[in-house]
Amino acid sequence: VMSILLHGDAAFAGQGVVYETFHLSDLPSYTTNGTIHVVVNNQIGFTTDPRMARSSPYPTDVARVVNAPIFHVNADDPEAVMYVCSVAAEWRNTFNKDVVVDLVCYRRRGHNEMDEPMFTQPLMYKQIHKQVPVLKKYADKLIADGTVTLQEFEEEIAKYDRICEEAYTRSKDKKILHIKHWLDSPWPGFFNADGEPKSMSCPPTGISEELLTHIGSVASSVPVQDFKIHSGLSRILKARAEMTQNRLVDWALAEYMAFGSVLKEGIHVRLSGQDVERGTF
Protein backbone atom coordinates (compact mmCIF):
# COMPACT_ATOMS: atom_id res chain seq x y z
CA VAL A 1 0.00 0.00 0.00
CA MET A 2 1.30 3.45 -0.89
CA SER A 3 -0.38 6.51 0.55
CA ILE A 4 -0.90 9.46 -1.78
CA LEU A 5 -2.13 12.83 -0.52
CA LEU A 6 -3.51 15.39 -2.95
CA HIS A 7 -3.14 19.05 -1.95
CA GLY A 8 -3.88 22.49 -3.33
CA ASP A 9 -0.97 24.96 -3.29
CA ALA A 10 -2.61 27.46 -0.91
CA ALA A 11 -3.68 24.67 1.46
CA PHE A 12 -0.24 23.02 1.41
CA ALA A 13 1.40 26.23 2.60
CA GLY A 14 -1.47 27.41 4.81
CA GLN A 15 -2.93 24.42 6.64
CA GLY A 16 -1.20 23.55 9.91
CA VAL A 17 -2.19 19.91 9.53
CA VAL A 18 0.26 19.59 6.59
CA TYR A 19 3.22 20.67 8.74
CA GLU A 20 2.01 18.47 11.63
CA THR A 21 1.64 15.44 9.36
CA PHE A 22 5.20 15.88 8.04
CA HIS A 23 6.44 15.73 11.63
CA LEU A 24 4.52 12.49 12.18
CA SER A 25 5.81 11.03 8.90
CA ASP A 26 8.89 9.29 10.33
CA LEU A 27 7.84 8.61 13.93
CA PRO A 28 8.03 4.90 14.80
CA SER A 29 4.38 4.66 15.92
CA TYR A 30 2.88 6.69 13.06
CA THR A 31 4.94 6.28 9.90
CA THR A 32 3.35 5.14 6.63
CA ASN A 33 6.89 4.41 5.33
CA GLY A 34 6.66 7.41 3.04
CA THR A 35 3.72 9.37 1.62
CA ILE A 36 3.67 10.87 -1.87
CA HIS A 37 2.31 14.42 -1.72
CA VAL A 38 0.92 15.71 -5.02
CA VAL A 39 0.40 19.48 -5.00
CA VAL A 40 -1.88 20.84 -7.74
CA ASN A 41 -0.24 24.26 -7.84
CA ASN A 42 -2.50 26.55 -9.85
CA GLN A 43 -0.71 29.57 -8.33
CA ILE A 44 -3.86 31.00 -6.80
CA GLY A 45 -5.78 30.27 -3.60
CA PHE A 46 -9.40 30.84 -4.63
CA THR A 47 -8.74 34.52 -5.38
CA THR A 48 -5.50 35.15 -3.44
CA ASP A 49 -2.12 35.76 -5.07
CA PRO A 50 0.76 33.68 -3.64
CA ARG A 51 2.52 36.87 -2.41
CA MET A 52 -0.50 37.54 -0.21
CA ALA A 53 -0.87 33.94 0.95
CA ARG A 54 2.56 32.80 2.16
CA SER A 55 6.05 34.02 3.03
CA SER A 56 8.09 31.38 1.15
CA PRO A 57 8.90 31.34 -2.58
CA TYR A 58 7.29 27.93 -3.14
CA PRO A 59 4.10 26.51 -1.59
CA THR A 60 6.01 23.26 -1.05
CA ASP A 61 8.78 24.79 1.11
CA VAL A 62 7.01 23.46 4.21
CA ALA A 63 8.18 19.96 3.17
CA ARG A 64 11.81 21.04 3.68
CA VAL A 65 11.20 20.63 7.41
CA VAL A 66 11.82 16.87 6.94
CA ASN A 67 14.21 17.25 3.98
CA ALA A 68 11.69 15.63 1.65
CA PRO A 69 12.74 15.86 -2.00
CA ILE A 70 10.49 18.25 -3.91
CA PHE A 71 10.01 17.92 -7.68
CA HIS A 72 8.68 21.04 -9.42
CA VAL A 73 7.30 20.04 -12.81
CA ASN A 74 5.56 21.89 -15.65
CA ALA A 75 2.07 20.38 -15.68
CA ASP A 76 1.70 21.38 -19.36
CA ASP A 77 4.21 18.63 -20.15
CA PRO A 78 2.41 15.31 -19.41
CA GLU A 79 5.50 13.18 -20.12
CA ALA A 80 7.59 15.20 -17.66
CA VAL A 81 4.81 14.78 -15.07
CA MET A 82 4.78 10.99 -15.64
CA TYR A 83 8.56 10.83 -15.35
CA VAL A 84 8.63 12.84 -12.11
CA CYS A 85 5.83 10.75 -10.61
CA SER A 86 7.66 7.50 -11.31
CA VAL A 87 10.85 8.94 -9.79
CA ALA A 88 8.82 9.98 -6.72
CA ALA A 89 7.35 6.46 -6.41
CA GLU A 90 10.82 4.94 -6.78
CA TRP A 91 12.23 7.29 -4.11
CA ARG A 92 9.46 6.36 -1.71
CA ASN A 93 9.88 2.66 -2.44
CA THR A 94 13.67 2.79 -1.95
CA PHE A 95 14.00 5.08 1.07
CA ASN A 96 10.52 4.86 2.72
CA LYS A 97 10.42 8.64 3.18
CA ASP A 98 7.98 11.34 2.10
CA VAL A 99 8.34 12.97 -1.33
CA VAL A 100 6.54 15.92 -2.95
CA VAL A 101 5.47 16.49 -6.56
CA ASP A 102 4.66 20.15 -7.30
CA LEU A 103 2.52 20.30 -10.46
CA VAL A 104 3.01 23.90 -11.61
CA CYS A 105 -0.12 24.75 -13.57
CA TYR A 106 -2.94 27.29 -13.81
CA ARG A 107 -6.69 27.44 -13.30
CA ARG A 108 -8.52 28.28 -16.50
CA ARG A 109 -11.87 29.29 -14.96
CA GLY A 110 -13.16 30.79 -11.72
CA HIS A 111 -13.28 28.80 -8.52
CA ASN A 112 -17.01 28.22 -9.02
CA GLU A 113 -19.68 28.98 -11.62
CA MET A 114 -20.34 32.46 -10.15
CA ASP A 115 -16.70 33.55 -9.93
CA GLU A 116 -15.18 35.79 -12.63
CA PRO A 117 -11.40 35.69 -12.07
CA MET A 118 -10.84 38.74 -14.31
CA PHE A 119 -12.21 40.86 -11.41
CA THR A 120 -9.39 39.90 -9.05
CA GLN A 121 -6.52 38.76 -11.32
CA PRO A 122 -6.97 40.60 -14.64
CA LEU A 123 -3.33 40.44 -15.82
CA MET A 124 -2.88 36.78 -14.91
CA TYR A 125 -6.14 35.81 -16.64
CA LYS A 126 -5.22 37.70 -19.82
CA GLN A 127 -2.16 35.42 -19.97
CA ILE A 128 -4.20 32.30 -19.14
CA HIS A 129 -6.73 32.98 -21.91
CA LYS A 130 -3.81 33.01 -24.39
CA GLN A 131 -2.59 29.58 -23.20
CA VAL A 132 -3.30 26.60 -25.46
CA PRO A 133 -5.05 23.95 -23.27
CA VAL A 134 -2.73 21.08 -22.32
CA LEU A 135 -4.86 18.46 -24.13
CA LYS A 136 -4.60 20.31 -27.45
CA LYS A 137 -0.92 21.10 -26.88
CA TYR A 138 -0.03 17.45 -26.25
CA ALA A 139 -2.32 16.12 -28.99
CA ASP A 140 -0.71 18.46 -31.56
CA LYS A 141 2.74 17.24 -30.47
CA LEU A 142 1.77 13.55 -30.78
CA ILE A 143 0.12 14.10 -34.17
CA ALA A 144 3.18 16.05 -35.44
CA ASP A 145 5.45 13.21 -34.21
CA GLY A 146 3.27 10.66 -35.99
CA THR A 147 2.62 8.84 -32.68
CA VAL A 148 -1.16 9.09 -33.21
CA THR A 149 -3.29 10.22 -36.13
CA LEU A 150 -5.82 13.06 -35.99
CA GLN A 151 -8.58 10.48 -36.49
CA GLU A 152 -7.40 8.40 -33.48
CA PHE A 153 -7.30 11.52 -31.33
CA GLU A 154 -10.81 12.60 -32.37
CA GLU A 155 -12.17 9.08 -31.75
CA GLU A 156 -10.68 9.08 -28.25
CA ILE A 157 -12.24 12.47 -27.46
CA ALA A 158 -15.63 11.33 -28.85
CA LYS A 159 -15.45 8.13 -26.75
CA TYR A 160 -14.80 10.11 -23.57
CA ASP A 161 -17.57 12.63 -24.34
CA ARG A 162 -19.97 9.75 -24.95
CA ILE A 163 -19.16 8.19 -21.53
CA CYS A 164 -19.88 11.55 -19.83
CA GLU A 165 -23.07 12.21 -21.81
CA GLU A 166 -24.48 8.72 -21.16
CA ALA A 167 -23.75 8.98 -17.43
CA TYR A 168 -25.42 12.41 -17.34
CA THR A 169 -28.50 11.05 -19.13
CA ARG A 170 -28.73 8.06 -16.75
CA SER A 171 -28.42 10.34 -13.73
CA LYS A 172 -31.73 12.04 -14.60
CA ASP A 173 -33.60 8.75 -14.12
CA LYS A 174 -32.18 8.17 -10.64
CA LYS A 175 -34.82 8.70 -7.96
CA ILE A 176 -33.08 7.02 -5.00
CA LEU A 177 -29.50 7.38 -3.82
CA HIS A 178 -28.08 4.02 -2.74
CA ILE A 179 -25.33 4.90 -0.29
CA LYS A 180 -23.77 1.46 -0.36
CA HIS A 181 -23.03 1.83 -4.09
CA TRP A 182 -20.64 4.64 -3.22
CA LEU A 183 -18.37 2.20 -1.41
CA ASP A 184 -16.18 0.68 -4.09
CA SER A 185 -16.17 -2.75 -2.43
CA PRO A 186 -18.70 -3.15 0.42
CA TRP A 187 -17.47 -5.72 2.90
CA PRO A 188 -19.59 -8.87 3.03
CA GLY A 189 -22.19 -8.62 5.80
CA PHE A 190 -21.38 -4.94 6.43
CA PHE A 191 -24.91 -3.84 5.51
CA ASN A 192 -28.21 -5.29 6.65
CA ALA A 193 -31.09 -5.99 4.25
CA ASP A 194 -32.24 -2.34 4.23
CA GLY A 195 -28.83 -1.09 3.19
CA GLU A 196 -28.07 0.45 6.58
CA PRO A 197 -24.64 -0.27 8.10
CA LYS A 198 -25.02 -2.77 10.94
CA SER A 199 -22.80 -0.59 13.12
CA MET A 200 -25.74 1.84 13.44
CA SER A 201 -27.41 -0.55 15.89
CA CYS A 202 -25.36 -0.77 19.07
CA PRO A 203 -25.54 -3.74 21.46
CA PRO A 204 -25.82 -2.99 25.22
CA THR A 205 -22.38 -2.08 26.59
CA GLY A 206 -23.07 -2.09 30.34
CA ILE A 207 -21.06 -4.30 32.72
CA SER A 208 -21.71 -5.59 36.23
CA GLU A 209 -20.83 -3.59 39.36
CA GLU A 210 -18.72 -6.51 40.49
CA LEU A 211 -16.52 -6.16 37.38
CA LEU A 212 -16.28 -2.37 37.85
CA THR A 213 -15.16 -2.88 41.47
CA HIS A 214 -12.57 -5.40 40.31
CA ILE A 215 -11.17 -2.99 37.68
CA GLY A 216 -11.18 -0.13 40.22
CA SER A 217 -9.22 -2.13 42.79
CA VAL A 218 -6.67 -3.30 40.17
CA ALA A 219 -6.32 0.29 38.92
CA SER A 220 -5.54 1.49 42.44
CA SER A 221 -2.97 -1.19 43.29
CA VAL A 222 0.75 -1.58 42.56
CA PRO A 223 1.44 -4.62 40.38
CA VAL A 224 4.88 -5.44 41.84
CA GLN A 225 5.39 -6.31 45.55
CA ASP A 226 7.80 -4.14 47.61
CA PHE A 227 8.00 -1.66 44.73
CA LYS A 228 8.84 1.84 45.99
CA ILE A 229 6.52 4.32 44.33
CA HIS A 230 6.50 8.13 44.40
CA SER A 231 4.58 9.49 47.40
CA GLY A 232 2.43 11.68 45.11
CA LEU A 233 1.43 8.61 43.15
CA SER A 234 0.62 6.54 46.26
CA ARG A 235 -1.72 9.35 47.36
CA ILE A 236 -3.55 9.15 44.01
CA LEU A 237 -3.83 5.34 44.21
CA LYS A 238 -5.15 5.52 47.77
CA ALA A 239 -7.80 8.08 46.75
CA ARG A 240 -8.75 5.89 43.81
CA ALA A 241 -9.21 2.81 46.06
CA GLU A 242 -11.44 4.87 48.42
CA MET A 243 -13.52 6.10 45.48
CA THR A 244 -14.05 2.54 44.27
CA GLN A 245 -15.19 1.46 47.77
CA ASN A 246 -17.57 4.46 47.98
CA ARG A 247 -19.04 3.75 44.51
CA LEU A 248 -17.72 7.05 43.09
CA VAL A 249 -15.77 7.79 39.90
CA ASP A 250 -13.84 10.74 38.49
CA TRP A 251 -12.69 11.14 34.85
CA ALA A 252 -9.46 9.18 35.34
CA LEU A 253 -11.14 6.22 37.06
CA ALA A 254 -13.97 6.20 34.51
CA GLU A 255 -11.36 6.01 31.76
CA TYR A 256 -9.59 3.13 33.58
CA MET A 257 -12.88 1.26 33.84
CA ALA A 258 -13.60 1.79 30.14
CA PHE A 259 -10.15 0.53 29.10
CA GLY A 260 -10.21 -2.24 31.69
CA SER A 261 -13.58 -3.61 30.57
CA VAL A 262 -12.48 -3.63 26.93
CA LEU A 263 -9.25 -5.44 27.89
CA LYS A 264 -11.25 -7.99 29.91
CA GLU A 265 -13.10 -8.82 26.68
CA GLY A 266 -9.75 -9.60 25.07
CA ILE A 267 -9.67 -6.49 22.87
CA HIS A 268 -6.26 -4.85 22.44
CA VAL A 269 -6.08 -1.18 23.50
CA ARG A 270 -3.33 1.01 22.07
CA LEU A 271 -2.53 4.30 23.81
CA SER A 272 0.01 6.71 22.39
CA GLY A 273 1.32 10.17 23.19
CA GLN A 274 3.49 11.75 25.86
CA ASP A 275 0.72 12.40 28.42
CA VAL A 276 -0.41 8.79 28.19
CA GLU A 277 3.16 7.55 28.66
CA ARG A 278 3.77 9.48 31.88
CA GLY A 279 0.22 9.02 33.13
CA THR A 280 -0.45 12.74 33.58
CA PHE A 281 -4.20 12.31 33.58
UniProtKB/TrEMBL annotation:
Biological process annotations from GO: tricarboxylic acid cycle
A Pfam family reported for this protein in Swiss-Prot or TrEMBL: E1_dh
GO-annotated molecular function: oxoglutarate dehydrogenase (succinyl-transferring) activity; thiamine pyrophosphate binding
Keyword Ion transport (UniProt): no
Cellular component terms (Gene Ontology): mitochondrion; oxoglutarate dehydrogenase complex
Keywords assigned by UniProt, alphabetized: Oxidoreductase, Thiamine pyrophosphate, Transit peptide
Cofactor requirement: thiamine diphosphate
Dehydrogenase E1 component domain boundaries: 2-179
Record-stated family: Belongs to the alpha-ketoglutarate dehydrogenase family.
Full protein name: OGDHL protein
Source organism (scientific name): Loxia curvirostra (Red crossbill)
Encoding gene (name): Ogdhl
